[in-house]
Each structure stands twice: as structure tokens, then as C-alpha cells.
Amino acid sequence: MPFVKLKTPASAARFRRTAALAFAALVISAAPAASQTSDLTSKTAFRVCADPASMPLSNDKGEGFENKIAELFAEQLSLPLEYTWFPMATGFIRRTLQANKCDVVIGYGQGDEMVQNTNHYYTSAYVLIVAADGSLAEVSTLSDPALKDARIGIIAGSPPATQMVRNRLMAKARPYDLMVDRRYQNPADDMLKDLQSGEIDAAILWGPIGGPMVKEGYPDFKVTPLLSEATLPRMFYRITMGVRRGEKVWERKLNSLIRRNQDAIDKILFDAGVPLLDQMGTVLLDKPK
Fold first, then answer.
1. What is the radius of gyration, based on Cα positions, of the chain?
2. Tens of pLDDT along 153-208?
3. CA 276 to mean position of chain CA atoms
4. What are the chain's domains?
5. CA atoms of 176 and 197, how far apart (whole Å)
6. Half-sphere exposure of 230 (CA within 13 A, CB side)
7. What is the tens place of the pLDDT at every residue in 114-138?
């Protein structure tokens, strides 16, 4: 683009004034947005976004382990606990957190771009669930030859499905839906019932779902975290709390609550039956004191 010389000193002065005013307007218009990022968070309640029918994580009766963590934080903040209920499916974040109907999602996978993540407060893994006295009781990896002819239940589209394809376990696998409204469908419970009836030989579930469900209703099953898979995708994940993007003040406050209450959080998770791992996802942790 050719250089254009201003014709007169007066026109140059007007240009400078116009540019200065435009810059000042830009700064002024941006300042409220920056200062308001933490002001979106309620000062009168601890507002939580949650699924009303996602046991063992949460429900509208307050029975899930994420409900109990929410109660702990509300108590620590000296605020009443308020929920916005919405099924954990397509549109969940857009209709709850982003709509400013609530301020935090208690359990959210680290690294998801739809939210700003706090520090993680636990690490868990997918688990293999089998009959405790059955022929698969000692299996600890999906590459074990004992699984060659097994009928394995798997949530369609979940990370272990990729490992099953790699190990040629999909031919006899039984898929269960991933994205459902848990008020009307419960794939994890269906899978465990099928395992109990002999329709399948093994089940693979996310540990914070499968572990508590087995502890609550299936004492004859064995839960084995998948810690020894040699190839990607990994089977362990760090779980954070999700807040609106840009709300750094609120994120730091939650990080402080996580740090100061980690022992209490661990106890809630262990009591529920969640398999807890070290940060590298290689060691199953003992029950906290």
C-alpha cells in the first residue's frame, strides 16, 4: 500500500486527536468487561451446575459424591448451596455455566476448552469390572489373552474403545450409549445388570462411576483400574472444577478451597468407592486416614 502524506499540519493534528480519542474509547470500553469477570459470580450463594440424575456423581436429592463436595465448599464459604439442574449432555455448559445460572461445575475433565479449569482435585481411571470368582478376575490389562473371546461391555466412543479396537476385542463387544439423559436411561447400570445376568463377561466403565456402583450394589464383582495400558489413549484422567473462562479470581478462590480441604475431599471420594490414583495415574492410593 503506498504511503500517503497528510497535506497540512492541521490535518495531521486532527488525525492525531482522532486516533487518541479512538484509543481512549477502546480502553474505556474494555475496562468494565475486564473488571466484571469475577463480578458474575454470586456473592450470596454457592451456585453449582449439576446433572439431576447422574448417580453416583450427583442427583437432585443430594446423594452423589459431587453433591457432598459441593456441600463441603458451601459450608467453607459460609454460603447457602444453590443448584441449577440440567442433564449432562449436549448444551450443558451453554445452558448453565455460560448462561450465568450457576458458577461452578464440581467435576470436569482437565483440559476441556469449554470451561476454565481449577487445579485438579483427584485422578482416576477407567476400570475393568468382572466376577470376583470368575476366570477373568486376575486380568489387569486389555492386552491380556484371557479377554480374546470375552464379551465386553463398553460405552461407545469412550477412550477404552480405542484400546479394544487395537487389541481386537470389538467383534464380541456390546456397546452402550454415551450421551443420554440419565433421567430416562442408565447405560452404566444396564451394563452391570448384563454382567450380573451373564449377558456379558466383563464391563469397562469410568472409575468414578463403576467403582461406587459396584460398592453400592454388586459385592460379587471385582473392580480393576486399567493402569498398565502401553499405548495411547491413556486410561487415567485428572478431574477439576469448571468455571467460566476469564474468572481468574473465582478460580484462585476454588483452588485455595481445594488445597485446604483435600483430605476431606479424598475421604468423600474413598467413602463413595472412587478409585483414586497418584498424579501420574500409575498407583492406586490407599484409603486416607
1. 25
2. 999 999 999 999 999 999 999 999 988 888 999 999 999 999 999 999 999 999 99
3. 14
4. 46-122+236-272 (3.40.190.10), 124-225 (3.40.190.10)
5. 16
6. 4
7. 999 999 999 999 999 999 999 999 9
